[in-house]
Known about the structure:
The complex is a heterodimer of chains A (483) and B (139).
Chain A lengths: L6 H4 L7 H6 L11 E9 L5 H11 L16 H4 L2 E7 L7 E7 L9 H8 L9 E10 L2 H4 L9 H8 L6 E5 L8 H14 L3 E3 L12 H19 L4 E5 L5 H14 L3 E5 L4 H13 L3 E5 L4 H4 L5 E2 L1 H11 L3 E3 L11 H12 L2 E2 L11 E2 L7 E5 L7 H8 L4 E3 L2 H4 L5 H20 L4 H15 L1 H10 L23
Parallel strand pairs in A: 4-10, 5-6, 5-15, 6-7, 7-8, 8-9, 9-11, 11-14, 14-15
Antiparallel strand pairs in A: 1-3, 1-4, 2-3, 12-13
Helix pairs in contact in A: 8-9, 8-17, 9-10, 13-14, 15-18, 17-18, 17-19, 18-19
Chain B lengths: L15 H13 L3 E7 L10 E7 L5 H15 L3 E8 L6 E9 L7 E7 L5 E7 L12
Antiparallel strand pairs in B: 1-2, 1-3, 3-4, 5-6
Helix pairs in contact in B: 1-2
Amino acid sequence: MGDELKGADRYKSGVLEYKKMGYWQPDYEPKDTDVIACFRMEPQEGVPADELAAAVAGESSTATWTVVWTDRLTASELYRAKAYRVDKVPNTENQYFAYIAYDLDLFEPDSIANLTASIIGNVFGMKAVKALRLEDMRMPVAYLKTFQGPATGIEVERERMDKFGRPLLGATVKPKLGLSGRNYGRVVYEALKGGLDFTKDDENINSQPFMHWRDRFLFAMEGITRAEAATGEVKGHYMNVTAGTVEEMIKRAEFAHELGSIVIMIDLVIGYSAIQSMAKWARAHDMILHLHRAGNSTYSRQKNHGMNFRVICKWMRMAGVDHIHAGTVVGKLEGDPAMITGFYDTLTKTHTPLSLETGLFFDQDWASLNKVMPVASGGIHAGQMHQLLHHLGEDVVLQFGGGTIGHPDGIQAGATANRVALEAMIQARNEGRDYLAEGPEILAKAAKWCSPLQAALDTWKDITFDYASTDTPDFVPQANTSV
Amino acid sequence: MKLTQGTFSFLPDLTDDEIKAQIQYAMDQGWALNVEYTDDPHPRNTYWELWCQPMFDTTDPAAVMMEVAECRKVYGNMYIKVNSFDNTRGRETVSMSFIVNRPKDEPGFGVSREESHGRNIRYRIHSYATDKPEGRRYE
Lengths: 483, 139
């Protein structure tokens, strides 16, 4: 046992170390129904790691700074979160992974807001912690079953769109700000007719003086329908309904629904409860729900603070979105390949085993919650198709915004280049070729009969974004971190 | 127009050897394959006619190729596609779907618009092939 005090000694008025209050239980074996969190902590000087872990457990569950006798009116031992394990983070001076178990009854069913108010609430501001980061969480099946999960899910999205066996293709309309509704719809039409499955509003295009939302939706719908007729395929445009109030978002979503749109879009910055509301609305209206992760890097990118993006992936799968931007590996935005594999697995698998190499600290059964389609967006182009398929797999939306609209021969040509590159790569992979090594050759061969692809390859052939990642996994291969 | 439904419609029409390679890939994944045909390729015509049920116990791509050949003999001027089905828990749906035969002339689709309240427009995508009765659409 830890250094826990019992009985009258435990409840003497005054201040007590968190360990002595019972928040450090090194012998505790988490129950299958416990929520478990793994934090990366950096203690202030003089604060022992186990005491800090106990403090984090305390402040994220029942504790306050001093002993209160009213604890004794409750089943307090059950409600106390239990820090049960602390590991030094490999290759660091003063960082620790702390594992904390929470009883299921601490949380309201079907509420990300309630979960996060505990887990990332006051604890991040405690003076005793120099820095704190939520690395991962294990959600018990019993708890997951209280959430709706993705409104549509990957398989149903594919069935509705009649698109199988390959990644989907998209593009964000550019420039993201300033186009009129009429000009905007032109980009939608050209990109979809040229071969893309989706076009997309950007995160900050809502209803500005240059284009109000109704105009965008109406013109986009004309572009979508024309492209559907020209190709015989089902197409969509992510209509961003993000607005100042949930009521306004619902109003815009209802208009999109009335127009026959198959997909709407929201931004992460609208907040957890708003996201859950929109997910329920989307389920009730057969609507695919796209989430742009605007804002996440303010708290997910730096290793010593905030939370890892994999936690956001978990919460968003529970909250019920169908798409989430989750990294490209090769594009312009942050992304270590191993970490991104962990995010993608979190979104698309029915079960993810513990895998420290990819940053997954826990074995996680997803309890039949639908899968979320990851979206790869930002600085990618047709010439990287072999790498994209290798790193990201088949269940992903590859979004080439600049890589479509910036094509020298026009938007349709840009879209066609991307679609041909993709289909050629899928064909080669299925034929058993070493498509990663032979990728450039496969693309060059397809470019011989597809001039738009040749032009794309010529334009972007050497463009890469090769910077060191800030967020990488910290593990030593022999570490045994099972729970 | 060229109908671009399916996994490989942006590539030149697949040769029989190329089709066979894709069937082999699907079989290697443990998926069952079938053949379907239609004379109405509307994007929301989900249910093409079944030429055959998914062949759950077939491990030789030649068997599927034989069905493709038979189907082409009867419906050579219609759209024919090969589908694969993955019954893994959590997927349990179509895993690949690609066109292996097209009519000589693909008439495509028209859009009709009905002006509705405000600026709303009710769209209808219309398959020109269906202007003729079923079975005579590509005569």
